[in-house]
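for the recovery benchmark. tokens below, seq after
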């Protein structure tokens, strides 16, 4: 034994080969501070061992190394800049030390080699992977850039253009693509990986592979002349500006760092990388995106734990109500392998549901993401029917009929009389109280809400709504089913609008009042999209949702929470709806929708909408527009947390991110408030308190701000 640590070991094999094995105590290998320290100690042991002629690096886990330990980042990044710089510089020097070992090194990569794991492979002279490998530098998804030499070694290995595409998108690469780009030297079957690595290393030791030349390439300046350099980095900057925009500093920093380091050798280039990493670590975007990662882990962990506790397996599903939403739910269930009955009372509705599923599949085939087998198996898994009797074998039934409490209650009651005694019944209602709907059932313990978001196949979130009488087993089984469907389930307690729509409608109400006070809806949309970062501004979003749907839901919310969500007099949404403007569905809303000469969709502000709003226009500054929309949303989110509708701020943030497309660089509604500073948010809300109850903060939030507490403590 050359070296024995908690996370990695080195053993001397025949022929002078040191076999370095990563095998941490947990389920995966990560580069936490303990592992980095051990890697440094390992290098010292290898340097002092005279019999070592080469080193093979591999993993004993199902994945090579998944990256750095992100759980260490929050504490680490709260340190002064100098201390963060010291940490990242020392860590990257450990990778340099491994790269500088006086003999050839080979990485044998299985499963994920991401972030620091990818950087470990880059510090080796040669790389062989098996067919399960996924290699990449996803730091951009955390608002960061590689910090252990990735921006230095990868461009010198595969070229600046390829490297910047890898790093600025953060996408992991399949082994065939990685090999085509030059990041791998061979790809083999999993059972041949170790032997292939040993064989490659032996060739290097015997001089049949020039490993010194490969190493020199990674430590030298980039081989670009002045014209090539200008073209490469100008193109990269333009692409990043177009795709990432101004809200995400990390990809911009990567391009600048690689460009500035192009003429430098390793030491100077690494210094630039370390400095760039520290600057990004201190940005709000990094704090938000790291927060998203940890919140996502929390949500998924809770979901998996609940699913494991379920004793009921969903083998057969049913959807009541076809159409676009029902068809979308049936598709999502069927594509993940669950046979699904789709029931409606009209043949044309069933056809619409089947058409929706077929449309999704055909688009997938056009993009190369769906093959003929998947298309056929998915459509075969959907059984359209007009008969209730076909529900008798269903383990779960999802009601997705019209958003009317009387209609839903009647359908649920009839369903209960048809299905088996242990079948679970769910309602895909977006606003109607689950407790209210449960009154129509004899066994409310097997009933809950299962709220999907449109379009179903794209939106990750499913709200699982627990009623007063819903059993734990019902919740566990539905969570397990949602996970099987490929969705992210978040369990919330019942209230009007549940979590997502409950916080969305104060945002809409703030928008409506702003229009009545003279704001231009086009200007508001521009601010909320370009400045705040929403994928759609409020006017456009309401048009997409449908003004009829928005108006109906506003009525439900007003009845359920009258103290804050009373209907606004002359509400523009209601005015447009009553004038027959339904939004995208009939081409007329705040905007008029159509197509140009080439058949591309068009969206133009509707003069009719301005007339129906009827307010004398005036300009509002950006900060006021944002505040008047976001303060009501944040206040309602706080109340949801205080009332126990949602269990944690992290889950609320993920629900808005996955259900509404909350801007990721802001991290979620609670992270947004904390980035502003709770005291500053309280002062901002107080500034607009005279606008009504939606703008008045809770005593709990005021106390949190005064005492310097955090929602993420």
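predicted aa per position
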């Amino acid at each position: 034994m050359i070296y024995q640590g908690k996370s990695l070991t080195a053993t001397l094999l025949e022929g002078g080969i040191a076999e370095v094995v990563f095998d941490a105590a947990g389920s995966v290998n990560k580069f936490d501070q303990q592992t980095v320290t051990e890697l440094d100690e390992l290098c010292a042991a290898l340097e002092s061992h005279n019999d070592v002629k080469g080193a093979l690096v591999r993993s004993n886990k199902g994945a090579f190394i998944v990256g750095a330990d992100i759980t260490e980042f929050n504490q680490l990044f709260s340190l002064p800049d100098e201390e963060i710089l010291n940490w990242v510089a020392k860590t990257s020097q450990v990778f340099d030390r491994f790269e500088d070992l006086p003999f050839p090194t080979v990485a044998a990569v299985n499963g994920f080699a991401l972030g620091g794991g990818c950087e470990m492979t880059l510090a080796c002279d040669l790389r062989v992977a098996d067919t399960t490998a996924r290699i990449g530098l996803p730091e951009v998804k955390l608002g960061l850039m590689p910090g252990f030499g990735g921006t230095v070694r990868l461009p010198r290995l595969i070229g600046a253009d390829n490297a910047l595409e890898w790093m600025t998108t953060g996408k992991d690469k399949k082994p065939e693509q990685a090999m085509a780009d030059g990041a791998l030297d061979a790809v083999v079957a999993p059972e041949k990986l170790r032997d292939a690595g040993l064989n490659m290393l032996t060739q290097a030791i015997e001089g049949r592979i020039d490993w010194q030349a490969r190493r020199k390439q990674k430590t030298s300046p980039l081989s670009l002349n002045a014209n090539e350099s200008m073209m490469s980095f100008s193109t990269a900057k333009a692409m990043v500006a177009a795709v990432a925009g101004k809200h995400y500093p990390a990809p911009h920093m990567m391009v600048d760092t690689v460009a500035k380091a192009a003429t430098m050798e390793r030491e100077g280039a690494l210094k630039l990388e370390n400095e760039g990493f520290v600057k990004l670590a201190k940005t709000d975007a990094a704090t938000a995106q790291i927060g998203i990662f940890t919140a996502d882990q929390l949500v998924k962990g809770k979901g998996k734990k609940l699913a494991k506790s379920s004793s009921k397996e969903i083998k057969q599903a049913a959807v009541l109500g076809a159409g676009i939403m029902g068809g979308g739910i049936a598709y999502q269930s069927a594509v993940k392998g669950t046979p699904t009955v789709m029931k409606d009372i009209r043949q044309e509705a069933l056809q619409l549901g089947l058409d929706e599923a077929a449309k999704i599949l055909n688009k997938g085939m056009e993009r190369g993401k769906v093959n003929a087998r998947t298309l056929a198996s998915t459509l075969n898994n959907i059984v359209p029917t007009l008969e209730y009797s076909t529900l008798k074998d269903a383990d779960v039934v999802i009601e997705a009929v019209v958003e009317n409490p009387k209609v839903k209650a009647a359908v649920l009651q009839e369903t209960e009389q048809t299905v088996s005694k242990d079948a679970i019944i769910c309602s895909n209602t977006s606003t109607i109280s689950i407790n209210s709907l449960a009154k129509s059932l004899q066994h409310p313990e097997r009933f809950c809400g299962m709220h999907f978001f449109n379009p179903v196949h794209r939106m990750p979130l499913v709200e699982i709504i627990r009623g007063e009488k819903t059993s734990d087993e019902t919740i566990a089984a539905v969570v397990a089913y949602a996970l099987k469907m490929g969705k992210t389930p978040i369990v919330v307690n019942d209230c009007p609008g549940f979590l997502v729509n409950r916080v969305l409608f104060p945002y809409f109400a703030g928008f409506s009042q702003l229009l009545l006070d003279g704001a231009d809806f086009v200007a508001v949309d521009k601010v909320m999209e370009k400045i705040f970062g929403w994928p759609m501004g409020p006017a456009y979003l309401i048009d997409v949702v449908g003004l009829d749907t928005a108006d109906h839901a506003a009525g439900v919310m007003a009845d359920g929470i009258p103290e804050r969500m009373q209907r606004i007099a002359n509400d523009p949404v209601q005015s447009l709806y009553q004038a027959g403007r339904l939004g995208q569905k009939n081409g007329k809303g705040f905007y008029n929708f159509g197509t140009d000469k080439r058949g591309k969709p068009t969206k133009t502000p509707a003069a009719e909408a301005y007339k129906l709003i009827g307010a004398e226009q005036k300009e509002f500054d950006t900060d006021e527009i944002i505040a008047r929309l976001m303060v009501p949303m944040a206040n309602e989110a706080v109340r949801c947390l205080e009332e126990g509708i949602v269990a944690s701020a992290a889950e609320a943030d993920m629900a808005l991110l996955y259900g509404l497309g909350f801007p990721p660089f802001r991290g979620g509604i609670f992270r947004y408030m904390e980035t502003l500073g709770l005291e500053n948010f309280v002062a901002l809300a107080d500034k607009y308190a005279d606008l009504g109850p939606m703008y008045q903060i809770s005593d709990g939030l005021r106390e949190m701000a005064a005492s310097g507490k955090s929602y993420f403590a």
